[in-house]
Amino acid sequence: MINKTVKNVEEACHDIQDGAKIMLGGFGLCGIPENSIAELVKKNVKNLTCISNNAGVDDFGLGLLLHQKQIKKMISSYVGENAEFERQLLSGELEVDLIPQGTLATRCMAAGYGMPAIYTPAGVGTEVAEGKETRNFNGKNYLLEYAFDADFAIVKAWKGDTAGNLIFRSTSRNFNPLMAMAGKITIAEVEELVEVGELNPDEIHTPGIYVQRIFQGEKYEKRIEQRTVRQAN
C-alpha cells in the first residue's frame, strides 16, 4: 500500500504556483481546509482561480486570500457573507462565475468520473444559459455544462489513513468528497491521521485512490459562520 503522507502543509502545497486552478472543499466555514488556506496566504501565490461553494467571510476561509488579492476568479454558488468579495466584484477587480449549487456539485462529480460534460435543466431560460449549448430531451431543454478541470483539489476530513482513505464528519462532508475525486492532484488535511487498517472500510467516504497527499492538520478554529441560539424564557 502506497504511503501518501507528507510531513506538513508546506510540503503538501509546495508546488501550487501563480495562476493555479484550485478546488476547495467546505460549505460556509464548515469543513474548509484551514491549514492549506493559511499556507496559500503565506506563500502569496497570485492569480488563482478558486472553485468553492462560497468565498468564506472577510477574515476567515477564502476571505483571507481575497484580502491579499490573490484570487483572480471565483467560481461559486453563494457569495453573500463577504463584504470584500462584494467590493472587488463591483469594482471589477475580481472575475466571478456564479453557478447553481447543484450544477457546481455535478460538474465536480463529472470531473471525478472522467465525464467531459453534463446536461442539466438548471439555468435554462436565464442569464446562466447565455452562450451555452442547449439540447432538447423528451420535450425538455437542458444546458451543456463542462466538467471542471482543476490543477489541485484541497479537502479537509475528520480522519484519514496513510493510504489517503478519508472519513468526513457530519455536515463537514458537504463538497469535500466530490472535490476530492476531481483534482489532478488532491491534497487532504485531516484532524486525525492513522495507519492503514485502522479505519472501518464500511465508513470510508473517499477511497485513497483519489488522494495524492495527506497530512495531519493542527490548530483548527472551526468557526461558526452564523450562530443562532434560543432566547432564554
- Helix/strand order: HEHEHEHEHEEEEEHEE
Characterize the biggest β-sheet: 8 strands, mixed
CA(first)-CA(last) distance: 57 Å
Radius of gyration: 18 Å
Q: Let me know the average pLDDT.
A: 94
The shape is globular
Count of strand segments:
11
CATH superfamily: Glutaconate Coenzyme A-transferase
Class by alpha and beta content: alpha/beta
Which range best describes the helical content: under 10%, 10-25%, 25-40%, 40-55%, 55-70% or over 70%? Answer: 10-25%
Give the strand content. Answer: 25-35%
Pfam families: CoA_trans
Organism: Soonwooa buanensis
Family: Belongs to the 3-oxoacid CoA-transferase subunit A family.
Keywords: Transferase
Model description:
The chain has one domain (9-114, 147-216): Glutaconate Coenzyme A-transferase. It has helices at 9-12, 34-43, 63-67, 83-91, 101-113, 176-182; strands at 21-24, 48-51, 71-76, 95-98, 117-120, 134-137, 140-146, 152-161, 166-167, 185-194, 213-216. It has 6 helices and 11 strands. It is an alpha/beta fold. Helix 3 (63-67) links the parallel strand 2 (48-51) and strand 3 (71-76). The model has no long low-confidence stretch (mean pLDDT 94). It holds the Pfam family CoA_trans. Keywords: Transferase.
Quick synopsis:
The protein is of the alpha/beta class and 233 residues long.
What's the layout of helices and strands?
Blueprint: H1 9-12, E1 21-24, H2 34-43, E2 48-51, H3 63-67, E3 71-76, H4 83-91, E4 95-98, H5 101-113, E5 117-120, E6 134-137, E7 140-146, E8 152-161, E9 166-167, H6 176-182, E10 185-194, E11 213-216
Parallel strand pairs: 1-2, 1-8, 2-3, 3-4, 8-10, 10-11
Antiparallel strand pairs: 5-7, 6-7, 8-9
Helix pairs in contact: 5-6
